Amino acid sequence: MSDAIIQSAPVWAKPTSRYSDLFNRALILIALGALLIFILLPIFWMLKSSFQSTSEVHAIPPSWWAANPSFEPYVIANKIVPLLKYIWNSIFVSASAAILAGIISCMAAYVLARFRFPGATLILVTILLTQLIPPITRVFPVYFLIQNLGLLDSYSGLILAYTGFAVPYAVLLLRGYFQSSVPAELEEAAMMDGCTYFGAFVRVILPICLPGIAAVTIFTFLLAWNDFLWASLLLSSGDAKTIQVGIGGFAGEGGGGRYPNAFMAACVASTIPALIMFFFVQKWLVGGLTAGAVKS
Amino acid sequence: MASISINEAYKSYGQLEVLHGVSLDIEDGEFVILVGPSGCGKSTLLRMIAGLENITGGEIVLDDLVINKLPPRQRDMAMVFQSYALYPHMTVRKNMAFSLKLAKASNDEIDQKVSMAADILGLEPLLERKPSQLSGGQRQRVAMGRAIVRDPKLFLFDEPLSNLDAKLRVQMRSEIKELHQRLQTTTVYVTHDQVEAMTMADRIVVMNGGHIEQIGTPMNLYNKPDTKFVASFIGSPSMNLIDGHLDDDGRFTSQEGLSWDLKDFAPKSAFGEKICLGIRPENIFVDGEGVALGEAIINVVEPTGSETLLSLRAEKANLHILDRSRREFKKDENVTLTADKHDFHFFQASSGQRLS
Ligand SMILES: Nc1ncnc2c1ncn2[C@@H]1O[C@H](COP(=O)(O)OP(=O)(O)O)[C@@H](O)[C@H]1O
Ligand SMILES: [Mg+2]
């Protein structure tokens, strides 16, 4: 990434001067470095504080390193709120919503990308329209809907809500993906080779579209993982709380002030699963699988 | 092995009719090429045979069985697409084995058939590669390999060579022809390139604007084009076509001022008619014998060595000549033109139909 930027620098630098070239490179590196620090500093602060004692966190001048790194803050955090339980809740809800949204949206997107049928345009426009309405206006309708279904305070209610929020966007994204990266001739080739429509979809289209489907699934997972509004609305009582609501509760009860290190520990713990998830699937996000399918 | 009949096939997309009743019989083992300008409906017809497009009207009959409603997978045909449509997530081997796997062939049988096809096409060293690691010509070969492992009733090709460079195209042309001679599988092949059609086909079907202009062997189409369209489409460089009038005495006059005496050999039906007179560039001679075509001035000289293409001006008309005498010509040179009486083609001006 930075390589590409550095290499493109001489386009505006004078190619004749070796020194001005070096100077430009240095400038770019410095700018990139500053940006990196700006992004990473808060994260570093969170990380190191989670291994420090309370006094170290409050120390002035700030102490940039944990002198005696300890897991104590994590233990404290887990005592104040059931951290592991909350994380597990979050993983379960987010993963369920992500998988459900992935399955529904890739099937819907495929049909909308490939088949012409009466009402197809209407469906597309409707999906698009849902994206134009500010999310906050959904609060009451969704709340009452979930209430009427008797799904308040349950995982299912929250999963249903997240899936519903993610699907329209996912369908639009995947439809474009199917249209641009899977030429119709591939399915036709599969059908000539002996596949049914569904067989061609499962054996040829799905494997090729894994990067797109993975992107949509991760997007949904992160949307659900980071959500505070809906989780706090639909899960008002104890045990089913997600980690975001749990951390909110931690801060609300003054825990954030008294145990800043434990609070930071809870925050670190809440990011880890999302990070792991991201690293696990990132290779699918790198596209290019279709390269070579069709000579263009 | 199979024969196929297309009876009065129609195709419409909504209100737009793109095939207007096409009939064609293809015999077992034949290599038939559909040729015509872009947009004339060749691919549509091929895809109707394959089952990838619905048939709006008419019948397609495969070995006495009407297959109009049969899905592609039940037709036992293999198709090579213009874009090759290789499965990008599978190796060459898996691409070729895919159809056999679906047909639940045993592993031994799959291995044996894939290596046989790979052997024929010279693909053995590439079997474990992904399509993205292949050159255009290699991909083309894999697409063909995928078709031949199945030993299908019918091969369908849709402009398989149009993405290759000129040299490779010539090479693949003869390879495909050789493959057909070896396998003897009935083949329907679509191209817009008349040279490809002439060199490869047992029979050529010339299409234009959603209907068939003429069906015949390559030499048949070249020697006796049924219509003005076929006359201009088949042959390269294309036939000189001159609109004019043949009077009752057999004298042909054109608006550009040409005046030729054709009474000894013009067909009866052409006398007293507005006609379009055709004569191929390779059939006009400089300072030769036969029917006199008057004088002309050379405009452009394009030698290729074995032959020289001349653009000339005769009166106000532009004519092309392909000269094979290897004589050297100069621009603005004045020459006398002649032609053999058998090489004139007469078409009715209004309908474009051949008069004979
Ligand atoms: N899906 C479609 N919808 C509407 N018109 C189509 C469609 N496919 C092809 N056509 C039209 O049908 C005609 C024949 O197309 P095609 O068979 O692809 O021509 P060719 O292969 O001879 O170049 C063209 O005029 C094209 O615009
Ligand atoms: Mg075509």
Descriptive account of the structure:
- The complex is a heterodimer of chains A (296) and B (356).
- Chain A has 296 residues and is mainly α.
- Chain A contains 14 helices and no strands.
- Residues 1-13 and 287-296 of chain A have low confidence and may be disordered.
- Chain B has 356 residues and is of the alpha+beta class.
- Chain B is 24% helix and 34% strand.
- Chain B has helices at residues 42-50, 92-102, 107-121, 136-148, 166-183, 194-200, 218-223, 228-233, and strands at residues 4-13, 16-26, 31-35, 57-62, 65-66, 77-80, 154-158, 186-191, 203-208, 211-216, 240-246, 251-254, 259-261, 273-279, 284-286, 291-303, 308-314, 317-323, 334-339, 345-348.
- In chain B, the strands form 4 sheets. In chain B, strands 6-7-8-3-9-10 form a 6-stranded mixed beta sheet, sandwiched between helices.
- In chain B, α2 crosses α3, α2 (92-102) packs parallel to α4 (136-148) and α3 packs across α4.
- The A-B interface holds A 183, 185-186, 188-196, 199, 203-204, 207-208, 289-296 and B 50-52, 71-73, 77-79, 81-89, 98-99, 102-103, 130-134, 136, 139, 146, 150, 163.
- The site of magnesium ion has 3 residues of chain B, from α1.
Model regions low in confidence, pLDDT < 50 over at least 5 residues of chain A:
1-13, 287-296
**How many domains of chain A, as an integer?**
2
Number of strands of chain A: 0
Mean pLDDT of chain B: 95
* Distinct small molecules bound, one entry per kind: adenosine-5'-diphosphate, magnesium ion
In terms of per-residue confidence, which ranges of chain B show pLDDT below 50 for 5 or more consecutive residues?
Answer: none
Overview features:
heterodimer; A: about 300 residues; MetI-like fold; B: about 350 residues; alpha+beta; OB fold (Dihydrolipoamide Acetyltransferase, E2P); 2 domains; six-stranded mixed beta sheet; five-stranded antiparallel beta sheet; 20 strands; binds adenosine-5'-diphosphate; binds magnesium ion
